[in-house]
Amino acid sequence: MFRPLTGLLVVLLLPGLCSAQVERLELGKRLSKFEKAWDEQTDAARRKEAVSELQKAVASFFSFRLAEAGRSLDQARFKLTEGKEVLEEKRWAESLHVQPERYLVEADLPTLAVTVAEFYATGIMPPEGAAVRLTILGSDGKPVRPPTMAGITGLPQTVKVNLKDVPPGDYQLSFEVLVAGEVFAQSSYGISIAKQLKDRLARLEEGMNRLPRRNTEGETARFLIKLLSDLARDRVPETDYPANRLLAEAEALAAAQEPYYTAERAGQFWLALGTEPGPSVVRLQIPLGLSKDKPVPLVLALHGAGGSENLFFDGYGNGAVARLCGERGWVLAAPRLGVGGLSLSAVVDELAKRYPIDTKRVFLVGHSMGAGQALSAVASSPEKFAAVAALGGGNALRRTERIQDIPFFIGVGSLDFALRGAQALQESLKRAQVKTVEYKEYPEIEHLVIVQVALPDVFAFFDRVAKGS
Questions:
Q1: Average of pLDDT values for 119-142?
Q2: Do residue 226 and residue 202 come from a single domain?
Q3: Strand order of the sheet with strand 437-442?
Q4: Is the model's pLDDT at 3 over the cut of 50?
Q5: For a 10 Å CB count at each end of the chain, is N or C smaller?
Q6: Residues 6 or more apart from 47 whose CB is under 8 A from it?
Q7: Burial of 3 (0-12, 13-18, 19+ CB in 10 A)
Q8: Diameter of the chain by CA atoms?
Q9: Does 91 fall in a domain?
Q10: Which of 243, 267, 265 is nearest to 168 (CA)?
């Protein structure tokens, strides 16, 4: 029997395991493909068939069988896009992935070695005429130089991509698998090229001990230097970082004499907030045009077990929460959670020092483990939060003092292993006489896709709370 809490402690260790980083990155790519296919396929029967495979993916993930989870995600996507008939060439092509030798490289590097390999075994021999095409794409999605083609002669296989005359910047490495000239699979991976990389990193690393502690600029500089040093060596990232941009950002932070992250600087950022008792890592989205005269709501998005600050931005509906916040002009922060959690109140306080946040409209949305941490936060500091949405997680609340005026949204799938916990949460809130409790059970939905399915309802709920209706 699948026991999610048993696998939980193992999965929480994944971000620190080098051996798991390739799988984490690749699993994220396949999850994103699935989520796009789910949005595009509205046929209920197709979606129902996909959910059965998705349940296998979740079970494999919590059992630390990440390649098998990737296979199930692909099978779930095939149910949405291909129906019952999936060509062998398609199944074989989709099983492949690539791994560049580095994800952040020197501007004068002549070629980039890229390894092509199976992510999971299919038992299918490479089709006759199989080849790969690797293309470096700019921010406009156009090639910056001609693609590199190579026939597949055996796996794993190394292909050299020509970097001559590619200027410094952040790029996507497009990976296509072709059979007889027809594209059967496509994915992309972030790579970055930086001028004088070795010297710049050396200067930053040398000055790390002089960076201030308990200070967001200093802690973020320290965090980025470690991240960039890993990318410049052989560390596999878990998402596509704009490393060339982050290198310049780390240099600006190291020299900063005043706050660098302010309302005037819009976009997405990775910060290590200078909170107590230690820094809090968050991924942040700041909308354009923020004004201190018009404070805006803040959404704190709390990921599930095995995830990180990147999951709500890159997954859960292919970053749907970022789009929904962007449409409203709201600030979005996704903290990195651990077994012991972190002080969400401290995160709110630190962000409110820098951005025009309406501290009366701070919303929490959490999935699975994140739902549990959202509930703990609102039970501990109800005065800090305007509403909470618990998706695919939660259980009966033991501390229910002072939460009667906090609106709650509970979303869970009928096939979710967290269903009983969500029902227990609803009952405990009713017993506590909480005034607003919206409970929605989504038919034929399981634990992973619940976030993607429920987020439109969550933001409609947040809209009503924000307007006071």
A1: 96
A2: yes
A3: 267-273, 280-286, 331-335, 296-302, 357-367, 387-391, 408-413, 437-442
A4: no
A5: N
A6: 38, 41, 80, 444
A7: exposed
A8: 68
A9: no
A10: 243
Q: pLDDT per residue over 87-123, tens digit each?
A: 999 999 999 999 999 999 999 999 999 999 999 999 9
User: Are residues 429 and 301 part of one domain?
Assistant: yes
Q: What is the extent of the structural domain holding 271?
A: 261-466
Q: How far apart are CA 241 and CA 243, in angstroms?
A: 5
- Is residue 47 classed as helix, strand or coil in its secondary structure? helix
Pick left, alpha or beta for residue 4 (phi over 0 → left; psi -120 to 50 → alpha; otherwise beta).
alpha
Residues 318 and 357 placed together within one structural domain of the fold: yes
pLDDT tens for 418-457 read 999 999 999 999 999 999 999 999 999 999 999 999 999 9
Lookup: tokens for 95: 């099983």
Are residues 428 and 285 part of one domain? yes
The mean pLDDT value of the chain amounts to 92
Q: Identity (one letter) of the amino acid at 36? A: K
If you count them, how many residues does the chain have? 469
Tell me, yes or no, if the pTM score tops 0.70: yes
Total structural domains within the chain: 4
Distance CA 419, CA 120 (A): 31
Amino acid 7: pLDDT: 33
Task: Kindly compute the dihedral angle of the four CA atoms of residues 379, 385, 389, 395, in this order, to the nearest 10 degrees.
Answer: 0
- The tally of CA atoms less than 13 A away on the side-chain side of residue 51 is 20
For residue 320, the Cα-to-chain-centroid distance in whole angstroms is 11
Q: Which of 36, 55, 86 is the last residue of a domain?
A: 86
